[in-house]
Amino acid sequence: MGLTYSNKEKLKSKKLIDQLFSEGRSVSAYPLRMVFLKTIHDDTNLITKAGVSVSKKHFKKAVDRNRIKRLLREVYRLNKSAYFNNITTQYALMILYIGKDKPTYVEVEHSMNKLFDRFVEMESKKNS
RNA sequence: UAAGUAAAUCGCCUUAUCGCUGUCACGCCAUUGGCGUGAUGGAGGAAAGUCCGAACACCAUAGUGCAGUCAUAGUGGUUAAUGGCCACCAGCCGUGAGGCUAGGAAAAGUGCAACAGAAAGUAUGUACAGGUAAUGCUGUAGUGAAAUCAGGUAAACUCUAUGAGGUGCAAUGUCAUGUAUACCAACGUUUGAGUGCGGCACGUGCGAUUGUUGGAGGGUAGGCAGCUAGAGUGUAUUGGUAACAAUGCAUCCAGAUAAAUGAUAAGGAUUUUCUUUUUAGAAUUCUUUUCUAAAAAGAAAAGUACAGAAUUCGGCUUAUAGAUUUGCUUACUUA
After folding, report:
1. Is the dihedral angle over the CA atoms A6, A9, A11, A13 positive or is it negative?
2. Which is it for the CA torsion A110, A102, A50, A121, positive or negative?
């Protein structure tokens, strides 16, 4: 798993997203919140399929939403290998930005690391 | 030089590393297709609001008249079209350059009108004068923009003229996994309900039900088309006061779909502030010092707006840090 985030790794299926929100569990580290669900992808090499989302309620301008989503994607791309390379189960993820202010790159990176720490902890506990 | 006014243009840049997405070429795996490598494209002047006008698509629709609803409203031109744009006229505002205009009709009717005034539409009081059989019957004074004489107002109803089907690319077309299955065919199964032949039984045919296969329908997930070469862009010439048009040459310039066009680092540009130096002017009794303006150098921090394509065009409206250019006006200075 490299530093890529190509089309395949994006969560695109409407069905899967609906399922994720209705059945998935969540973990949060303000201003981020992640909904996740164990699934089986068609491609066995793939570990995760991930999407990002920003509330239209808090950010009315499309420019702001785009900016935040790009940051989230970028941080996910650069940091995911550290956490998900050791995992064999397949997941569908959706990362939500629930804050109300525009973040910087460093802030997002910091809180996403925190988020993933909690996620890994939660899952290892459950498995053991 | 300052202030103003009109119009036009630009609206951060470069490099490195790591990524996203379209297209093309090659290679590999290979059924559609997938992967890799390389090359090359990848947000705006408003992409925004969705306010007008079109293209395109589907639905509706015999023709005509009347009524209603909505829109438009000087004249001429321009355009695919418009309620846009251009020119001119008129009115109003401004010293001026210029700006603004919802600029058809008040003798079809209805309504409305501050203050003043007796009275503003159901009119008619006072004083004086005139007049009559009698009466506000007549005149003057007084109020007001306007007094039995009418006027103003149609971003009040109204009238006149002209125009107008509806819904929007989540339109629409097409391929179709899976699931359930109206229907048809073949084969098989069964307590075989029911039923034809027959007086009855046997027998035999049809056959509810159920299973398999095939056909056909339906159209969900999803894919493809629509989907970007167009009333295109740049430039030159010609015609026209102009909007705009014609012709020649050159050119291809985003197509995503939980939605690409980014992130990080370094450097630069620009604006603001401060310091120093120089020059000019002013204040002060002189050196000094202080203030103002300009230029150069340095430093520091802060700022670099508004804002993100979603079928495509032509407009309008609104938002916008900062920068540039041109025409003109007014004031001042110098010659």
Report:
1. positive
2. positive
- Runs of H (alpha helix) within chain A: 14-23, 62-84, 105-127
Which residue is associated with the tokens 């570990």? Answer: A47
Give A98 CA → B311 C1' in Å.
34
Domain boundaries, given as residue ranges, for chain A: 8-123
For A13-24, what is each residue's pLDDT tens digit? 777 777 777 777
Domain A8-123: state its class. alpha beta
Say what the ipTM of the complex is: 0.84
Q: Is the pTM of this model over 0.90?
A: no
* Strand A32-38, strand A48-54: pairing: unpaired
Protein residues closer than 7 Å by CB to strand B: A 2-8, 10-15, 17-18, 51-53, 61-63, 66-67, 69-71, 73-74, 77-78, 94, 104-105
Residue keyed to tokens 């299926």: A13
